[in-house]
Each structure stands twice: as structure tokens, then as C-alpha cells.
Amino acid sequence: MRDRNFLIENNAKPIWHPMAHPAEMRAQPPRIIMKGEAIFVTDIEGRTVLDSVGGLWNVNLGFSCDPIKKAIADQLGELPYYSGFRGTSTGPSIELAFELTAGEPPTISFTIDGQRREMTPRLIVGADGRGSDVARQIGMKVETAPLHHLLAGLLVEGVDAWPDAEFSIGNDDDVMFFVFPQGNGRVRLYLCYGLDQRGRFSGADSARRFLDAFRLSSLPDKEMFCSAVPAGPCHGYPNADTWIDMPVAPGVVLIGDAAGHNDPTIGQGLSIAFRDARLVHEALLGSKRWTGDIFLSYATERRTRMRRLRFTAEQISILRAEFTETARKRRRRVSERIAADRDAALPLLIPVKGPFGVPDHLFEQAAWDALMN
Ligand SMILES: Cc1cc2nc3c(=O)[nH]c(=O)nc-3n(C[C@H](O)[C@H](O)[C@H](O)COP(=O)(O)OP(=O)(O)OC[C@H]3O[C@@H](n4cnc5c(N)ncnc54)[C@H](O)[C@@H]3O)c2cc1C
Question: How far, in Å, from the CA of 359 to the mean position of ligand 1?
Fold first, then answer.
């Protein structure tokens, strides 16, 4: 290892750190971590701190754990790495993959060094996000709404002209746009666009094409995002609701995106996940028996909550994320209705007030027709 002065002098110069602008990293050099032991890391100044992110979620058994060091050393002598991209796999990746069976208690089994291991926890809480492996392995039925439109997002910086305390959501030409300031000139930008434009923001140069598409005449200065500096990847996502009507099986309960996700156009994902976690936590604290029946009221509440959020997401998607002449006329008509009667806007406030924060009748066909048709 080169000496301490060399490391400090060259910190952030030859390396581009992910999710950060190189100039910002050079101005405020990152902390140089030199040593990790159990749950602590020590930096180049000798300061030891608790590593609360566990590496980046991949050091969940602590640093310098002897059995892991030995397993890594043994594997290095055998096969240090091989890609699992289509066409190839490796022995250890298959061995370590888990198998899960619902039951009271549930079982998780995996193979290490040719030996089958089995664990029987009291409960498995599946919180493994979209396309949950836990849900798949216990055979839960995932319902999917038809795909309505696509969403692409990009974090940018260097946009000092945008006020820090103002977000904006609107329609312009063939996109629905979102501007969410993050402070210090950083802004999270999103665009919804039609299914006929698949691939519009994918492939090489997608960030450049995304920023060009943000030249929107309804912004105070249509060029303001064109010179922004991308501070993350530009990705397009399909925007469709998925749901599992009964996210509970013997010994297993699913929460968050693992139990089905709402269309991100109305930005409810984290609220859903946090509320699920709270309801499951309350059920666990309310009973000594951790059997499936204690989660039934959670499952019932979630079914209604997700049904209401699907209704709202569909309504807002039809209103805001369609770009035909008919859709433009509908937007004008709805704006005029709201201008004449402010209560007519209530369905559009559901993403802010929550699915139980408005009158129940707003989730009925009559309320839909009154606003949209
Ligand atoms: C484009 C886009 C924009 C969005 N915008 C918003 C927004 O504005 N507001 C909002 O509230 N929500 C938004 N969301 C949704 C939000 O990100 C999710 O709903 C939320 O992150 C769900 O949390 P979760 O904990 O259920 O799942 P996740 O955040 O997906 O976490 C699941 C975790 O489990 C890990 N995991 C998976 N399998 C395993 C395994 N076998 N072992 C160990 N770990 C595993 C994954 O690596 C992941 O870290 C958006 C989503 C998208 C795609």
C-alpha cells in the first residue's frame, strides 16, 4: 500500500465515485476507509465508527468474519468469479440459492459444501421487493394490471435556478413531467411517456436524450435542464400495478413491493411499504402466537388500500399520461370543471391525503364519471 500522504493527495482524483459528481468529490474528498472489524470501520485518520449501512447491504455478517474469510479464500483457489449472465451458471450460486416452504413453522433450506441445511424460523417476513422470490417460492398469485405508460427518471445537478422548496408536476407536448428538487442544485426529474415510444430513453446517450426532452415550454425557462449534469443513471420503467390479494401464508407474510406495488406515477411506494411494516409490527406485538390468522386484518386492510390506490393511479394515468388529442381535450375539460368547483379536484388529492383520507364515494364509478367524462 502506498503511504498515507499519497492516498490523501490523490483521493477522488483518479476514481469517479458512483452517484456523485467528480468535482464535488474533489472539493469534499470522501472518507478513506482503511480497516473493517465486525460492525466497525476505521478511517485513515484513525477514527473508528459504526458502519450502519453494512458495507452497502452486503456485509450483513460483519467485516473480517473468519468463516467468511476462509470460504472466500477457498473459493479463490477454485473459481474466483464467473458471470451468471444467460448461458452460464456456477456451482456455489446454485448451492447457496434458498428454497422456502410455507408452514408453521416455515422452512428455508440451502446447500453448502454439498450438505443440505435447513432452518425453521418462527416467521418469514418477505420484504424482497418487486418480483419477490419469497412470493414466487410459496406460489402466491400475483395479479398485474395492463401496462398503461412508461416512466423514465434521472437525478441531475448544477440546476441552481430551480427553487429548492418548489416541486412541479405537469403535462407538456407528449410527456407528463415531474421536477423534485433535492437541495443544493440537485433535482430528480421524471418523464412519463406513451407505450408507442418504448426505447425513447434507453441505450447509449439516454441521459442526453432525456434532458433534451425536458426542453418544455411550460417551464419558466425551457433551457434550464439542458445543461444540467446527470448524477445517476437514466432508466425507463414499465408503470403497472401488481398486487397479491392474500399476502399471508402459514409462517410467511409479505410486505412492501414484495406484496405488490402501485403504479409509481402517484408516488405511493414508500408510504405503502412503511404502513405495511407498521401493521405487521403491531400484529406481532399484539399476539404471542405468530400464526397466520394474526395478519388477517393487515391483509384485509391492504386489499382495500391497494384497490383504492389502483383506482386513483388509473384515473391519474388516464388523465395525465395519455397524449392523444382526445386526452388533451379531457385534460382541458377536467381543468375547467375544477376551476368551476374546487371540490371536483378531491380525487386528484388522494396521493397526498392517502386512500383513507378522503370520502369513500370517491372510489366509485359515479365519482370517476363526474370528474372524467
Ligand atoms: C421509477 C420509480 C420511481 C418511484 N418513485 C417513488 C416515489 O416518488 N415515492 C415513493 O414513495 N415510491 C416511489 N417508488 C417506489 C418505491 O421505490 C418502492 O415502492 C419501495 O422502495 C418499496 O420498498 P420495499 O422495501 O418493499 O422494496 P425495495 O426497496 O425494492 O427493497 C427490497 C430489498 O430486498 C433486497 N433483496 C431482494 N432479494 C433478496 C434476497 N434474496 N436476499 C436479501 N435481500 C434481497 C433488494 O436488494 C432490495 O434492497 C418508485 C419506484 C420506481 C421504480
Answer: 30
Last residue within a domain, chosen from 216, 239, 262:
239
**Is the predicted pLDDT of residue 113 greater than 80, yes or no?**
no
Averaged over 70-85, what is the pLDDT?
Answer: 89
Instruction: Take atom 9 of ligand 1 and give the residue whose Cα is closest.
Output: 267
Please list the alpha-helical segments (H only) found in 129-238. 133-137, 206-213
Q: Is the CB of 149 under 6 A from ligand 1?
A: no
- Same domain assignment for residues 331 and 262: yes
Q: Are residues 322 and 253 in the same domain?
A: yes
Question: pLDDT, tens digit, for every residue of 152-175?
Answer: 999 999 999 999 999 999 999 999
Q: Are residues 355 and 335 in the same domain?
A: yes
- Which of 207, 239, 271 represents a domain boundary (last residue)? 239
What is the residue with the minimal CA distance to atom 27 of ligand 1? Answer: 129
Choose the weakest-confidence range: 1-10, 43-52, 285-294: 1-10
pTM equals 0.78
What confidence tens digit (pLDDT) does each residue in 133-144 have?
A: 999 999 999 999
User: What's the domain range around 331?
Assistant: 242-372
**DSSP letters of 231-293?**
-S--EEEEE--EE-S--EETTEEE-GGGG----GGG--HHHHHHHHHHHHHHHHHT-S---GG
- 134 lies in some domain: no
* CA 144 to each of CA 125, 147, 259, 306: distance values in angstroms, whole numbers, following the listed order: 22, 8, 12, 12
Instruction: Look up residue 209 and give its amino acid.
Output: R
**334-341 contacts, C-beta under 8 A, 24 or more apart:** 334/371, 334/372, 337/371
Helix axis angle for 325-340 and 365-372, nearest 10°, is 100
C-alpha–C-alpha distance, residues 216 and 207, integer Å: 16
Instruction: Determine, yes or no, domain membership for 72.
Output: no
Spatial distance between the Cα atoms of 328 and 340, rounded to a whole number of angstroms: 19
Percent of the chain exceeding pLDDT 90 equals 74
Q: Does residue 256's CB lie within 6 angstroms of at least one atom of ligand 1?
A: yes
Residue among 300, 304, 314 at smallest CA distance from 360 = 304
Tell me: pLDDT of 307 over 90: yes
Question: Residue with C-alpha cell 468463516?
Answer: 67
Q: Report how far residue 35's alpha carbon sits from residue 84's, in angstroms, rounded to the nearest whole number.
A: 30
Question: What does the pLDDT average to over 253-262?
Answer: 97
